[in-house]
Amino acid sequence: MESKQLSFADHTIVTDMLFETKAAIKDLSTALSEATSPQVRTFLETELMTAIGQHEQIYTFLQNRGIYDAYNIPEQLQKDITYAQAALDM
């Protein structure tokens, strides 16, 4: 599968989306554990599952393009340093 290289701006946006979905998962999980209304719980469960699915899609998108690899920490740290240096040089 051939994929187009992401621009620096696109990389920044999609990485931010990954982190935001992770935060949404945490927030929805917390809200779900506090909810007492069955209707609210059902709503939060649906939203939580949607957020988990979105996180998986975004992670897979990044992983398939070689941008993010949670299973190779040393390589990922080097990529992060490279991206950070590129941002500082702009």
TrEMBL record:
It comes from the Bacteria. InterPro entries: Spore_coat_CotF-like (IPR012851). It holds the Pfam family Coat_F. PANTHER family: SPORE COAT PROTEIN F-LIKE PROTEIN YHCQ (PTHR39183:SF1). This is Spore coat protein. It comes from Halalkalibacter akibai (strain ATCC 43226 / DSM 21942 / CIP 109018 / JCM 9157 / 1139). The lineage of its organism: Bacteria, Bacillati, Bacillota, Bacilli, Bacillales.
